[in-house]
Amino acid sequence: MATIIRETEVATGREYLSGLYAPVPDERVAADLPVDGRLPTDLDGIFVQNMPNPAFDPGAGHSWFDGDGMVHSVEIRNGRATYRNRFIETAGLKEDRAAGRATYVGSLALPGLGKRHKNTANTDLIWHGGRLLALWWEGGVPYEISLPSLETVGTFDYAGTLDRGMTSHAKLDPNTGEMYFISWGTKRPYLSVGVATDDGRIARTVDIDLPGPRVQHDMAISGKYVCVFDFPLAVDLREDAPALGFKMTPMPSRIGLLSRADLDAPVRWFEAEPCYMWHVMCAYDDGDDFVLLGVRTHEATDVDAEGKHRGDRPLVDGEHRFDSYLHEWRINTATGAVTERDVDDALAEFPRVNDRYMARRQHVGYLALVDGDAPTLRAKGIARYDLDDYSRQDVLFPEACYGYEPCFAPKMGATDEDEGYILNFVTDSERGTSELWVTDAQHFAQGPVARVKLPRRVPPGFHGRWIEASKYAEKC
């Protein structure tokens, strides 16, 4: 293997390549990890989280979003924990290793400086049709990951039926086995919706007519609808614009609903206040109302519509803003009326629910609490929201410790929505150590029941899943 960037060799002045964010150089396996507290015996499976981890010193215009995909996992079985981490062996990473250096420039680089848009598969993970798939936020062919080894099986194109990129944050309906996803780009069609079935094929693809190219990141499903967005965050198509040259435009937001019963029917668009949303928490039907919950930011970039820099909130990669608040949109599909409101004043990101309740009415949600005083995107704790009255419980991390997305893991035999545990990595930025926290969701405010000591620092990452052992053990 070619030489990998080491923590002591990271160039200074690049906030997402040093300190807390410094990439880890190698792949490890460690069993029988020490635990403060006691691991629940009613958890049997594996927690996996995807994250950016540059294998080589990055080229010009590097963004935190650009790091090579690396999956970190903790498998919990019979009250014991095993840690693993591995790179996702993408085609781009293989090119870099063959050259012995980074052969792609970053997504903030100007045109002409080198190859761009490397599919790093570093954003999300989803289990569908007996496969764990790693997805990339700009949209590409998913990579299949073997469990529990984390070995890369290769690309998975749904038996040749996937004819476009699959953007991260696909939504799986556990009742039907259907997985809905979006594709987006700078050429027509600017947006499309796809439906994958659990037998490993793409059943439908529907093009969505937008006025122009928009930055797309997430979507939602309810029992009745597929929800897509036309937010006023446009792609800058000027020749001298960077690959992530996004700009806010003076237009309202639009929320589009497609009937799941008739995907050929026209999209119904509903206007809302101008904003952007990186991540959806959930959506559900309430009579004639379609209810959407997500973390809304008023402005998504450091540059406003007039080209002025704000510089007053934590940024991701020096350009993109994540100053988000939990927000509710309620759309009456009979009258067309849209009502919306911030439901809390806490800076928050990376929202999650119990995936078993996707497309149904959810009563509980979880979020990472963002540290508004930090220079970069960092979470100082996690929160549990009662989605009936929006009351909140917090679990804060110790001083100098940061974490990210909370993931719900149902207990074995669970029958209630919140009958399970919240799993999340927590890293001590001063000591350079990491833990997996396990918190009982029904006794959330009491904090973690177990803190698994990991054999290495886990850098901040993006999104993760809990997969029950019964789903993958037979393949081992």
From TrEMBL:
UniProt family annotation: Belongs to the carotenoid oxygenase family.
Cofactor, how bound (note): Binds 1 Fe(2+) ion per subunit.
Keyword check for Ligase: no
Binding site for Fe cation: H169, H217, H279, H463
Iron keyword on record: yes
Gene Ontology terms describing biological process: carotene catabolic process
Cofactor dependency: Fe(2+)
InterPro entries hit by this protein: Carotenoid_Oase
Assigned keywords, A-Z: Dioxygenase, Iron, Metal-binding, Oxidoreductase
EC number: 1.13.11.-
Origin species: Sphingomonas zeae
Record-given protein name: Dioxygenase
GO molecular function: carotenoid dioxygenase activity; metal ion binding
